[in-house]
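Fold this complex.
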Amino acid sequence: MANSTLTKKRSTAYGSTVALKTAMAITGAILVLYLIAHMYGNLKIFSGQEAFDGYAHSLRELGYPMLPENGFLWIFRLVLLASVLIHIYAAVTLWARARRARPAAQRYKVNKRVARSYSSYTMRYGGVLVALFVVFHILHLTTNDIAPGGRSDSPYERLVNGFQPEFWYVTLFYVLSVIAVGLHLRHGIWSALATLGVNMSRRQGMLNAIALGIALIVTVGFLLPPLAVTFGLVS
Amino acid sequence: MNITLRVWRQKGQDDEGRLATYKLTDVSPDMSFLEMLDVLNEKLTLEDEDPVAFDHDCREGICGACGVVIDGEAHGPERTTTCQLHMRSFKDGDTITVEPWRAQAFPVVKDLVVDRGSFDRIIQAGGFISAPTGTAPDAHANPIPKPDADRAFDAATCIGCGACVAACPNASSMLFTAAKVTHLGMLPQGQPERAARVVKMINQQDEEDFGGCSNIGECAAVCPKGIPLDTISQLNRDLLGSLGKGVG
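Structure:
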C-alpha cells in the first residue's frame, strides 16, 4: 500500500480546507470588528434618547456629501452581507467535508473530550443559532417588521418597547443568542488567529486570553442595554 | 486484576463490525496494554476463536505501528503510545472499550487494524527533499541556529501513528502534515521545495478525504510525541505564502 500511486489530482490549494478556513478567518474578523462598533453604538443608550437616535442618524449621513445619503451605510451593509455569506459557505463546505472524513457509521462508541473547549464544541450549532438570531434581530430592530410593544421611527423607542418586562421571551432569546455569539467568538477569534498563522507555542496562552477577553467584552456590552430596559433602568 | 474488554470485531473491510465483550482474569498491572491483548488472544486461540487483529511492531514507543482508541481516547489515558501504556493505568473491575482509529482515510482492514496508506501518500506527495545522495556531509558544514534545529527535531519526532486523526472531531490530518512541513521548513535542505511542498501535501491530504482543521487542539493533546499545535500555524503561513506567490 505504501507503494500505491498517487491518485489523479482534483484538489487545488485555492479550494483547500486551509483556504476555506482562511476565508472564514478574514470574514470572521470583519464581523468581529463590526460587532465591536455595533456594541459601542448600543451603549449610547445610557446617554439618553437624543444621543442614541443622533448616533443612529449620523450613521446614515457618514461620508455625506461625498457619498449619497445612506451611501456609506449601504456599502457597509454589502460588505457585511458578503462576509456573512462567505463565512456560511465556507462553514457548510467544511462541515460537509468533516462529515465525509468521519461518516456517521464510523463514529466512536465511546467519546471523550480531552482538550476541546465547550466553545469549540458549540461552533457549528451555535453558528446556526446566531444566523437565525441575526434575521430576527434585523426584522425586529432595523426594519421593525416585528414590533413587540409597538412600532416607532425612533431607534431608541424601538429598543425600549421591544425589551419591556412583558416581552420577557424576546429578551430571553436575545440573551441566549448573545451568549451564543460570545461562545462563537471565544473559539472563533483564537481559531482565526491560528488559521492566519499567528500562533506560536509561546503565544498560545496570550492568543486564547485575547479571544476570551474580546468575547467577554462583546457579550457583556450587548447584554447591558436590553437588560437595563427590562429591569427598568432605561425607559 | 480482573477486567472486562469491549473490543471492536470486524472480519474485513465490507463487514459491518460490532463490539464484542470478553472477560479477562488475573491481569498483571505490570503488563503493557498490548501484552494484555496478547493474553486475550491466547485465550481466544485456545477456545478456537479468531484472535483480535491489532497492529504492533517495536513495542517501545518509537515505530508508530500500534494505536487504538481506548475508552474514547487515542492511545488511552496516558500521553504515550498504546504499547507503552500499562494496565496499572486502569483499576480492577474496569470495563475498557477498544476501538480502531476512525476516519474515511483510514479504512478498517480487520478488527483494530486500519490502513494508514493515506499518510504514506501525503509524504509521497511532498514530504521529502530532493538531494544527491553520497557520503554524509560534515556535521558542521551547514550551521543551523539552535532554536531552528530544536524545532525541526521536535517536529521530526512524529512517528505517523495517526492518533491526531483519530482524536480530531473532523478527522483531519493537519498535525501530521504540519509536523513534516515544519520539520523540513526549518532546515536549509528543505528550502528549495518549500513553497511547492506545502501545496502538494495539502492537496493530497484533501484528496484522501481528511477533514479540515478547526484549531480545537485534540490532536496535540493526544500526540504521544508531543508535536506542538503551533506547527499547524506554520503550515498555514507557508501555504498562504505559496498561494500569494501563485504556487497553487
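Chain A has a mean pLDDT of 93.
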